[in-house]
Design a protein that fits this description.
two-stranded antiparallel ribbon, D-Maltodextrin-Binding Protein, domain 2, ten-stranded mixed β-sheet, alpha/beta, DNA-binding, Arc Repressor Mutant, subunit A, homodimer, rod-shaped
Chain lengths: ~290, ~290
DNA sequence: GAGGAGCTATAGACCATATCTATGAATAAT
DNA sequence: ATTATTCATAGATATGGTCTATAGCTCCTC
């Protein structure tokens, strides 16, 4: 390289300490090295930068001019290095996650709490959306990772399989007669079914399953949140198709019960998506580590 | 050195151009060198700074953070280098000269005009004072050079001998009878003598000369400027002791004439003083070059 | 003054490493 | 497919940064 920025660091310390010897100590160099470095700078500029005497060095007029620029420059570099250290230590930075509201609330929440507790300096951005939206966000670089239901097939994405979820039909006291019974699909269809809105992944999966058995699943009620699925089933408005793990509390306390079917409902996995071949931010990789 | 600031320059160009190849071209390096440099930075921080793809590179979140600092830093360095080039080319800077008013006006003025014309970017500071004051200014670093009458004996100073000046006695039409005559010192003392103020170098020199011949020189009138010395002599108030070169115009036009003496008055030299062992500013050394 | 304790400058040797060439691998465009 | 980009990697080379040893200078102390 034609001119070496390293020399500015030496100059900075020499000017700051007023002594080549002290500069050398600060830089873990020997005094002759510093002397040589300053001389190089002076020769390069064709301008004397320091007055030398037996007490040390002081800046010349021109040296002082140079210092006024270099000082700022060096301070910025120091700040930059501190910032990078903070980013590495997860004392600073941000983590942008995309996912569905229900996954945030019922699956990620404890991890998010934990992560935030351990790394309060990292700002969390949660972006909810449908799976295709999340994928778009990822590809546009607006989020670091997406948490969605598998399967995902996209060669640009890397998907890590996470927790296994089991969807099921649940209802409340209004249909207590079904408790313990093992229903067939057509029997189930005689009851009002409550499903999540049309474009959800779970909805598509269960609709397809019914179709494979020759039935058409058309919901009595269609809602936009898991909360409402639970609430409506409890109130007796019908049978909700929900993720079992998300109604653990209600099943436990008995306000909902699961309806046994004579067919096996397919489990789904949660996938953590990131861009393939793109390095993860420290925060993102640390979070993924935590979740898995 | 433990960490190399040179890498930041490479990082800056890679980020700025979005391409390692372009960065290499800008830096007159090869692409593998740049690739290697970036890799080093990333390993040093333990953080990926760029996403690489077949079109080039783009900053990661953390890389963008680093860039926000480094960009400013690099801009400052560039400005610093431009400033230094300007100082070297004498397009910028300042020149601080100490001297007596009379030397500024009658000796330095044309040089100052010339210098200012050639280097309009350099600010001129003229500080007038007595010789001891000028020396103090020099030692305090408040001026770059001093222009005074020789001899100067001070081991801290370097004195360059400049123009030779000859002091002499002059008067106007009122004492026309003296024109062409050759006076002795005691004869001169019968006329009213006008001298410069007590603490001037020229005054001390001529007083001492009279003393060496056994006479006491006491002025009729004592003035504070060379202008008044000239003016008073012209108006016929007495015989002024002035520097011949400074009254060249008046001698030429005949409004003053020089009085011949039977003794040789000692010539003095103008000296240009600078601090010994201290590098001169570009402006100062250029000006000294011009004057000599 | 002599001697000591600072400071910086200089000379010469050494080796770390920045840089190069040559090549590979991956992607995008023709 | 083929060509033209991009960046990554490996290995060789020589530049030049850094060291040790020493000298020169100034200031201070005895």
């Amino acid at each position: 390289m034609n001119n070496n920025y390293e020399l500015y660091k030496v100059f900075y310390w020499a000017a700051k300490t007023g002594s080549l010897t002290k500069a050398a100590n600060n830089l873990y160099l020997t005094q002759p090295s510093v002397s040589h470095a300053i001389k190089q700078l002076e020769e390069r500029f064709g301008i004397a930068l320091f007055y030398r005497n037996s007490k040390g060095v002081t800046l010349t007029q021109e040296g002082a001019m140079l210092y006024s620029y270099i000082e700022q420059s060096q301070i910025l570099i120091t700040l930059a290095e501190e910032k990078m250290a903070a980013l590495k230590n997860l004392d600073s930075g941000e983590l942008r996650i995309g996912g569905s509201d229900s996954l945030f609330k019922h699956y990620l929440l404890p991890y998010l709490e934990d992560f935030h507790h351990n790394h309060p300096g990292i700002r969390l951005h949660l972006n909810h959306g449908t799976t295709p939206e999340i994928i778009t966000f990822l590809k546009e670089g607006r989020i670091d990772l997406g948490v969605v239901r598998m399967p995902i097939h996209d060669s640009q994405l890397q998907v890590r399989e996470s927790i296994k979820l089991q969807d099921c039909f649940v209802t409340g006291a209004r249909y207590a007669e079904l408790k313990g019974a093992i229903l067939s699909l057509d029997k189930l269809l005689q009851y009002p079914v409550i499903l999540f809105s049309r474009n959800s992944r779970a909805r598509m999966a269960i609709t397809e399953l019914f179709q494979n058995y020759g039935y058409t699943l058309k919901p009595e009620i269609e809602v936009g949140s898991v909360e409402l699925l639970i609430e409506f089933a409890r109130k007796g408005l019908g049978i909700s198709y929900v993720t079992r793990e998300f109604v653990a509390k209600e099943l436990e306390e008995g306000s909902l019960f699961e309806i046994q079917l004579d067919v096996q409902l397919p489990p789904t996995h949660v996938g953590i998506m990131t861009m393939r071949n793109m390095p993860l931010s420290r925060a993102a990789s640390s979070f993924i580590e935590l979740v898995r």
